[in-house]
Amino acid sequence: MSTRPYFHNVRIKSIQGCPQRPNFVRYTSNLTRSTSRSPPTAAFAFDIDGVLTQGSYVLPEARRILRYLDGENEWNKKFPFILMTNGGGKPEEERCRELSERLQSKIDLSMFVQSHTVLSSPVLPYLSRYRDRAVMALGGVGDTCRKIAEGYGYKNVVIPADLLAWNPDLWPFYKLRDEEKAYVRRDFDFSTTPIEAVFVFHDPRNWALDVQITLDILRYGSKGRPAFTRSNDMPHSHVHVDPLDAVELVFCNPDLIWRGAYPRPRLGQGAFREAFQGVYKVCLQCFS
């Protein structure tokens, strides 16, 4: 029997050759120099962070190139483009509204993909597999990622704060604040319902709590057995689980670092993944 959980890395990669800042002029000038009477056939994919924006700052070339692609060119033709980011933590609709305002171009849902958009895909198996199952959403501010998951169609979503409200002894080094108590679920019995998947939507804000809760789910639970109990009669060693019954762990963005407004790289969701995997490995060695 395998004692290892499934570690899935779901990543929206930047397209190789996606225009960086110095290339905007080259791309537009190549289009402009075309001697053909008909416009060239082309489509574009842009990374957002570090290409169109730098933290809260929008690069001036970004607005110009998007206006060009949106029809302000010699052919009065619109060229299709899509914006992609390994970021997340907000609903796609909200991000599109923000980007439309910041970039001064209309960005709709068909033109935008962020890291956890894949969890809503009708092609990938996540939504069809876990729509009616209990899943845990990690990361983001408050219960925003729970709401995102519910917006995708997942019907039974919990977050670590729900577990801590259910049993504060799970992680005694953190007490829920009043604003957190206001949005926790009180209708979920973690001792009777197994959590079948853990989705890391965005960068966790409370690494210690999230590591502990996820560790418990993977070590002691399965798709058919709850990881938590109110009783003291529980195993202390890792519970061996058939791989087909193992809880699925999905990281939407394994990037170790990212570039924001601060001049040096900041730790991203991938750093949390490395921290969790390190703790998980040590626990397997010590308590198996």
From TrEMBL:
One of its GO terms (cellular component) is mitochondrion. One of its GO terms (biological process) is glycerophospholipid biosynthetic process. InterPro entries: CDP-alcohol_PTase-I, HAD-like_sf, HAD-SF_hydro_IIA, HAD-SF_hydro_IIA_CECR5, HAD_sf, LysM. Transmembrane segments: none annotated. CDD domains: LysM (cd00118). This is Cat eye syndrome critical region protein 5.
